[in-house]
Amino acid sequence: MDGYRPGCLGDIVALHARYYAREWSFGLAFEAKVATELAEFLSRMDLSRDLFVAAYDGDRLAGSIVVDVSGGGPEGAHLRWFIVSDEARGTGLGAALMGRAMHFCDAQGVRRVWLTTFRGLDAARRLYERHGFRLAGERAEDQWQGGVVEQRFVRELV
Questions:
Q1: How far apart are CA 47 and CA 50, in angstroms?
Q2: Is 133 within the bounds of a domain?
């Protein structure tokens, strides 16, 4: 697992686009949103505050996770672009990525972390909940234009 390397922006976008198109029929609007927002994050990330992890198996992206502290806003740090490739699912990589992200948050003194996802991603939800996230709400508004019910999860340290 490492940080940015040339091409990983495109690799992360492609991994998201292919998975969510195949499994959830998401289209160009979703892919463009991931590409735009990830590029914006990478151009402003502050390595002293933010975490960017891209896990590779040779030259192939196996997974990624981001903790956007500097741009998370008043709601706390924003967990984003968490995904594991088909080949790496079931290997423990997802748990390792999430563990690294939560360790980073704890070491940085981040008191609140939030993420958005949608109903139906049950394995991811179980992983979030094992790491202290709780469902904070659902809404019918679908920012990804995939016909899903959006969910917001929050992890708060008291």
A1: 5
A2: no
| Stated pTM of the model | 0.91
Answer yes or no: is pLDDT of 141 > 80. no
Structural domains counted in the chain: 1
**Residue 46, domain CATH:** 3.40.630.30
Q: Which domain holds residue 22?
A: 8-111
Question: How confident is the model over 11-61, as pLDDT tens digits?
Answer: 999 999 999 999 988 899 999 999 999 999 999 999 899 999 999 999 999
Give Cβ neighbours of residue 39 (< 8 Å, ≥ 6 apart): 9
| Residues counted in the chain | 158
Largest CA distance in the chain: 41
- Find tokens 């994050």 and name the residue: 41
Pairing of strands 77-84, 134-139: unpaired
Within a domain: 126:
no
Q: Band of the pLDDT at 149, cuts 50, 70, 90?
A: confident
Q: Is residue 142 part of a domain?
A: no
